[in-house]
Design goal:
Helix content is 29%, strand content 17%. It is α+β, with helices and mostly antiparallel strands and 194 residues long. The protein has a domain at 65-111. Strand 4 and strand 5 (76-79) form a beta hairpin. This is Glycosyl hydrolase 109 C-terminal domain-containing protein.
């Protein structure tokens, strides 16, 4: 990752919640008590000019979705379902169906392609992992870490990757404090950081 820019909305949801539940005189119901906004958006740029958009929103009044992902490439795209009753969708250029009337591209359920494209780790652990937090993501991260220790190998995500991803929060706050200014992400693997 090369740089990021972050923006935060006003803080309204928590103030409103405390006002409704504890009265307008409660300190947390007063304007200015909450410093963080309801929603934050961070745009990350990688060295290879890939754009990553992150949105964090823990306080807005709406159903929470911990596993909403979108992936867009040149040959396909993926959109996760917004709730458990909605399908994850996928589109593949020159492979997904089209409407007969006008040839419009169509999304289709991801499950149509899962036997072909599921990752070997998901094939091994998916049934169990799906019953854990964040759609199985937490389980798979821990499973990889433990496997690396047991197999005496370098983990897929090393300490430098972890520090880089962890720095996104702090660098985002710096960008917000500077009015959305672009902030460079340090290269923690370089000699100056060891």
């Amino acid at each position: 990752m090369k740089s990021l820019t972050a923006f935060v909305s006003k803080s309204r949801s928590l103030q409103q919640y405390f006002g409704e539940h504890y009265g307008k005189d409660h300190p947390a119901a007063r304007t200015g008590f909450w410093r963080q906004g309801d929603s934050a958006t961070v745009m990350l740029q990688t060295e290879q000019e890939v754009l990553i958009s992150l949105r964090v929103d823990w306080t807005s009044v709406r159903p929470h979705n911990k596993t909403h992902y979108v992936l867009q490439g040149t040959e396909g795209a993926y959109v996760s379902g917004r709730h458990p009753q909605e399908d994850d969708l996928i589109w593949f250029k020159n492979r997904s169906p089209k409407l007969e009337e006008d040839g419009s591209e169509l999304w289709e359920p991801l499950r149509n392609y899962q036997p072909e494209f599921d990752h070997p780790r998901w094939k091994q652990w998916g049934k169990f992992a799906a019953e854990t937090k964040h759609g199985g993501g937490d389980f798979l991260v821990l499973e990889e870490f433990i496997s690396a220790i047991q197999e005496d190998r370098v983990p897929a995500v090393d300490v430098y990757d972890a520090v880089t991803w962890s720095s996104v929060f702090f660098l985002s706050m710096e960008s917000v404090e500077r009015g959305g200014q672009t902030i460079s992400i340090p290269d923690f693997k370089s000699k100056g950081w060891r």
